[in-house]
Amino acid sequence: MAYENKPNSGALFKNDKGDNTARPDYRGDALIDGKSYRVSGWIKDGAKGKWMSLSFSLTETPAS
Fold first, then answer.
1. Which residues pair with 38 in a beta bridge?
2. Dihedrals φ, ψ of 11, to 5°?
3. Residue 6 gets which letter from DSSP?
4. Of 42, 44, 43, whose CA–CA distance to 55 is shortest?
5. Distance of alpha carbon 38 from the chain centroid
C-alpha cells in the first residue's frame, strides 16, 4: 500500500543530489486544501544556525 498524505499535511524525504548542488536536499509532497503540491527543501546555514528553505509547486494531477 502506497503512502497517502492526510489533508493539510505532507512528508519530506532525503533527496539524492548527485553532483548537482542546486538540487534540493529533501523532496516530497503535500495535500493542502484538496490540492497536491510538490515540496522541495534546501538546508541553509545562517547567522543563527541551520534552517530549511522550502518551495511548493502545484502538481498537475488533482488529489483524490
1. 29, 57
2. -150, 145
3. P
4. 42
5. 6
CA 42 to chain centre: 9
Q: Does the structure show a pLDDT above 60 at 63?
A: no
DSSP track, 17-43: -TT-TTS-SEEEEEEETTEEEEEEEEE
- The 10s digit of each residue's pLDDT in 7-45 is 999 999 999 988 998 999 999 999 999 999 999 999 999
CA 40 vs. chain centroid, Å, equals 4
Confidence band for 47, pLDDT divided at 50, 70 and 90? very high
Are the C-beta atoms of residues 11 and 5 closer than 8 Å to each other?
Answer: yes
